[in-house]
Design goal:
By secondary structure, this protein is of the alpha+beta class. Helices cover about 50% and strands about 20% of the residues. It is built from 24 helices and 21 strands. The longest helix is centred in the middle third of the chain and has 38 residues.
Length: about 800
C-alpha cells in the first residue's frame, strides 16, 4: 500500500511540473537557509564548551575591567572555600617567536603567535589536551613554554620539540609541552609562557604591586569546587576584597567586583576597559534563528497555498477514493505522504546546495564551518526527524481541507472554493510579502548604518595610517624607535610618524587621576609630540605638545611634572572652566605627579559608534611601542616594501607586525557587518520564495478563470481592463502587506539602531524603496501571465475545460 501511495504521489508531482517545481525549489531554499543558520548558531553557541569544567569556571571582573591586578585572585583564593583553583592569564596579544637550530644556524624559523603569560594551574582549570609533555609541571618553572600543535609544525616540522629552546623577547624558553590547537575558545592561544618568568624578566615589576604597570593586570579565572549561587558569592567576594580595595595595594579603587560565568564570556563578556579575546553576538544569532524560521515558514506557505488552490482539480480524485471504500484516514495519509515526499526531495536538493555554497557562506558570515564535522548518525537522525515533522506540518492542513467535504457532495459537483478559502490564501500571501518587506527594510537600514559608521567623521584620520608594533624588550628600545622614525621620515612616501601606547579601536589604557580633589579613572593615550599632527586631531583651545628629545623625559613612564591634553567631553563632564593651566594630580608609590592641562582637543571617537565619546586625556612620553606611520595613498605595496627594508636595518631579523588603522577600527563592527551581509542574502532568498509562490498561484488562478476571461473579451472588455482586473486581485494584497510591514520594520530597526550611540535616521525613503521593490517584484511576477491571458483568443478560452 505504501508503495502504491508513493507511486501515485510521484505521478502527481510529475504531472504538475510547475507546481511541483515551485514547491520543491522554494522548500529547498528554505531548508538550505535554515541549515546554514543552524550551522552558524551551533558554531557560535559551542564556544568554550570543550572545557570539562565548563559550568564551574568563572572570570572575576572589576567594574568595567576585563583584567584586574593578579593579587586580587590570589588574595580571595585563600579566604573563600568555594574557590578550588585560580588561574591568571596576562598580556594577551601577538608576539614573535624564533627557533634557531643548533645544528643549522642558517635554518632560523620565525612566526607570530597569540601569546599569554599563564599560571602553572592553567591546565587544572581549562581543558587544553596535551599531545606531549606533562600538564602538571609544564609551566611551573621560569622560562618554560607550551605551544600549540600548528605552531610546533611551523617551527619544528615533524621533529619532537620537547626540550628545545625558542626565543621570546630576546630570552630563551624551553618547550615543555605541546597542546592541540585551541578552537572555539574566547581565548586566542598560540603559546603560553610561564607566569613565574615575569619577576626574573622584569625585576622592577612586582606582580603583587601593579602600580602603573597595568599591562601586568590579568584575566583572572576561578574554578569552583561545586556549582554556586553567583549572587551570594559575588557578595562574599566584595566583602573579602574590601580589606585591600583601598587604592594602596593597587592604584585603582574598584567600586564592585563580580563574577562572569565562562559560558557567558563569549557573548556577554565584552567590557569597556582592558578587554581581550574573541567575541560573539547573541543578538545576531537570535535574529538569524528567527530569519531562518520565517524563511522556512515562507516555503511551507507556498506549499499550503498551492495545494489548497489546486484542490478544485483533486476533489473528484478524493471523492472517487472515498466512494469506493477508502477511509478518510488513508486519504489523509496519502496527502500527507505526498508532502513528506516533497520535503525529502527538497532535503536532498538542500544538502547538495549546502555542500556547494558552504565556502561562500563562511566568507559572508566570517566563520569556518566544516561540513565533515556533521557527518554523524545523531545529526542524520535529527535531520530526517525534522524533515518528517516539516512534511507532516506542511501537509496536515491541505489533507484535512481536501477531506473536509462529504464525498457525495463532491460527486455532485460541490466545490471547495469559497470566500473563506480564498481569504485564507490571500492572508498567507499577504504574510509572505509583509515579511519580505520587513526584511527589505532591515537590509536597507543595516547597509545604510554600516555605510554611515564607516564613512562618519570620527574626528581623526584613520585612512592610510600604517600601525607597526615595535619590540619593547630591548634595553635601548626608545633609542631604536627614534632611529626607526628618522629612517622612515627619509622616505618620500612617508608623510609622518608618531608613537603611542594605544590605538582608536584597540586597547586603551586608563589612569587614576585627581580632578577637583576627586579621584577619577580616565582613559588615556601615551603619545609623542607628533601624534596629533599625524592623526589630524584638532586642538580647539591652548596648544599641542612641545617637541622634546629623549633626554627631556625623567623617570618611567612619567616625569614628576608633565603636560596633558584633555578632550571636550572631559571639560564638560568635570566642569573645567578655564581649563588651560589647570593642575591635575596622579599619585603612585606615595609620589604625587603634577599634570598641567596645556590644551583641549576636539572630541573624537576612540571606540565604535556604539559608544558615546567619553572623557580622556593625552600624555606626552617617550616613544611608546606602537608606530603610527602616515603613508601616501599612491603605490602602498611599494611603500610597505620600503618600510620592511627600514625595519630590517633597525631591528634585524625580528618579524614586523603591522596593520592599517582603518582595519583595526572597522573590526569593532564585525558582528554588525555579519548581520548586514547575512540579512541581505536571506532577504533576497525570502523575496524569491514569495515571488515563486505568487507566480505559481497566479498561474493556476488565471488558468482557472480562462472561461471568464473569454466571456469578458467577447462582451467587449479591453485587454487593459482584463490585465488590470487580474493584476489587482493579487496586488491589492501586496499593498496590504506593505501597510502592515512598514510600522513593524520601523519598530524593529529602531530597536537595533538604539544599540548605536550615533546612528542614521530611518527616513521615509527606505520604506518607499522597500515598498516599491516588493510591489515591483510582485507586478513583474504576475504581469506576463496576466498579459498572456488578456491577449488570448476568446474562442479558445471559451472552449477550455
Amino acid at each position: 500500500m505504501i508503495q502504491s501511495f508513493i507511486t501515485i504521489a510521484l505521478r502527481i508531482l510529475w504531472r504538475n511540473k510547475v507546481t511541483s517545481f515551485v514547491n520543491i525549489f522554494s522548500l529547498s531554499i528554505g531548508i538550505t537557509s535554515f541549515i546554514f543558520i543552524m550551522l552558524y548558531v551551533h558554531h557560535e553557541t559551542s564556544y568554550d564548551k570543550f572545557n570539562e569544567n565548563y559550568n564551574r569556571i568563572y572570570r572575576l571582573e572589576g567594574d568595567e575591567y576585563a583584567r584586574i591586578p593578579p593579587v586580587i585572585g590570589s588574595y580571595i583564593q585563600d579566604r573563600i572555600p568555594e574557590i578550588k583553583n585560580v588561574v591568571h592569564l596576562a598580556d594577551p596579544g601577538k608576539a614573535d617567536i624564533t627557533y634557531k637550530p643548533e645544528s643549522n644556524p642558517e635554518g632560523i624559523k620565525y612566526t607570530q603567535v597569540s601569546a599569554l603569560w599563564a599560571d602553572s594551574t592553567t591546565f587544572n582549570v581549562f581543558t587544553f589536551p596535551f599531545i606531549r609533555g606533562n600538564s602538571t609541571t609544564a609551566l611551573r618553572a621560569p622560562f618554560k613554554a607550551v605551544i600549540t600543535e600548528s605552531i610546533s609544525k611551523i617551527l619544528f616540522g615533524n621533529t619532537d620539540p620537547i626540550g628545545k629552546s625558542i626565543e621570546f623577547y630576546d630570552h630563551q624558553f624551553e618547550v615543555t609541552g605541546i597542546i592541540r590547537d585551541v578552537e572555539k575558545s574566547h581565548l586566542e592561544i598560540g603559546a603560553m609562557l610561564s607566569m613565574t618568568t615575569i619577576p626574573q624578566l622584569f625585576p622592577d615589576r612586582d606582580l603583587n604591586n601593579t602600580g602603573h604597570n597595568s599591562w601586568l593586570w590579568s584575566a583572572t579565572y576561578l574554578l569552583m569546587a561545586n556549582e554556586i549561587d553567583e549572587n551570594l558569592l559575588n557578595k562574599k567576594i566584595n566583602e573579602v576584597l574590601t580589606e585591600i580595595n583601598d587604592g594602596k595595594l593597587f592604584d585603582t579603587e574598584f567600586k564592585q567586583f563580580h563574577l562572569r560565568a565562562l559560558k557567558a564570556i563569549y557573548f556577554y563578556g565584552s567590557l569597556q576597559k582592558l578587554d581581550y579575546g574573541l567575541r560573539g553576538s547573541f543578538r545576531l544569532i537570535s535574529i538569524l534563528f528567527i530569519i531562518g524560521f520565517f524563511i522556512l515558514l515562507l516555503a511551507c506557505i507556498n506549499y499550503v497555498n498551492l495545494t489548497t488552490a489546486r484542490s478544485v482539480i483533486r476533489t473528484k480524485e478524493v471523492a472517487v477514493k472515498r466512494v469506493i471504500g477508502s477511509s478518510i484516514t488513508l486519504v489523509r495519509f496519502q496527502l500527507i505522504l505526498e508532502s513528506i515526499i516533497v520535503s525529502v526531495i527538497s532535503l536532498v536538493v538542500a544538502l547538495t546546495a549546502t555542500q556547494i555554497f558552504i565556502s561562500k557562506f563562511n566568507n559572508v558570515a566570517m566563520v569556518d564551518i566544516r561540513i565533515a564535522e556533521w557527518n554523524r548518525p545523531d545529526v542524520w537522525a535529527i535531520i530526517f526527524s525534522a524533515i518528517l515533522v516539516l512534511g507532516i506540518a506542511a501537509g496536515v492542513y491541505p489533507a484535512f481541507y481536501l477531506t473536509g467535504v462529504k464525498p457525495v457532495a463532491l460527486m455532485k459537483g460541490a466545490s471547495l472554493q469559497n470566500a473563506t478559502t480564498f481569504s485564507f490564501r490571500s492572508l498567507l500571501m499577504t504574510f509572505q510579502f509583509a515579511l519580505s518587506v520587513v526584511m527589505i527594510v532591515c537590509a536597507l537600514a543595516n547597509l545604510r548604518q554600516m555605510n554611515y559608521v564607516r564613512s562618519a567623521n570620527l574626528g581623526f584620520n584613520k585612512e592610510q595610517i600604517l600601525q607597526i608594533a615595535t619590540p619593547s624588550d630591548f634595553e635601548q628600545e626608545f633609542v631604536l624607535r627614534e632611529t626607526f622614525k628618522e629612517a622612515l621620515l627619509e622616505s618620500p612616501n612617508i608623510l609622518g610618524v608618531s608613537f603611542s601606547a594605544g590605538s582608536p579601536g584597540g586597547e586603551i589604557n586608563t589612569i587614576p587621576i585627581f580632578i577637583n580633589d576627586n579621584k577619577e579613572i580616565l582613559e588615556c593615550f601615551l603619545v609623542d609630540h607628533d601624534y596629533l599632527e599625524v592623526m589630524n586631531v584638532e586642538v580647539v583651545e591652548g596648544r599641542s605638545f612641545p617637541r622634546k628629545n629623549l633626554g627631556d623625559f625623567l623617570g618611567y613612564p612619567l616625569p614628576v611634572k608633565f603636560d596633558i591634553l584633555v578632550n571636550e567631553s572631559a571639560v564638560r563632564e568635570f566642569g573645567l572652566t578655564s581649563p588651560i593651566g589647570k593642575k591635575l594630580y596622579y599619585e603612585e608609590n606615595n609620589i604625587r605627579y603634577a599634570a598641567e592641562i596645556i590644551g583641549v582637543i576636539k572630541d573624537f571617537h576612540l571606540r565604535s559608534l556604539h559608544h558615546k565619546i567619553s572623557p580622556f586625556l593625552f600624555i606626552q612620553t617617550e616613544p611608546m611601542h606602537l608606530a603610527n606611520v602616515k603613508v601616501k595613498p599612491a603605490d602602498i605595496p611599494a611603500t610597505i616594501n620600503g618600510v620592511e627594508k627600514i625595519w630590517k636595518k633597525v631591528y634585524g631579523d625580528r618579524l614586523i607586525n603591522y596593520t592599517f588603522l582603518d582595519e583595526t577600527f572597522d573590526r569593532q563592527y564585525k558582528s554588525d557587518a555579519q548581520l548586514a551581509a547575512v540579512i541581505t542574502w536571506f532577504t533576497v532568498l525570502a523575496v524569491i520564495i514569495a515571488c515563486l509562490g505568487l507566480f505559481a498561484l497566479s498561474s493556476f488562478m488565471i488558468t482557472r478563470r480562462r472561461k471568464e476571461i473569454g466571456i469578458r473579451k467577447s462582451m467587449g472588455a479591453s485587454i487593459r481592463s482584463i490585465y488590470t482586473m487580474l493584476s489587482w486581485d493579487f496586488l491589492r494584497w501586496i499593498f496590504v502587506a506593505v501597510i502592515i510591514a512598514c510600522p513593524v520594520a520601523w519598530y524593529l530597526m529602531q530597536l537595533w539602531l538604539d544599540k548605536f550611540a550615533y546612528h542614521v535616521e530611518l527616513g521615509t525613503d527606505i520604506f518607499i524603496i522597500a515598498a516599491v521593490s516588493a510591489i515591483g517584484a510582485a507586478l513583474l511576477t504576475v504581469t506576463w501571465q496576466s498579459l498572456r491571458a488578456a491577449n488570448a483568443n476568446p474562442v479558445k478560452s471559451l472552449r477550455y475545460e
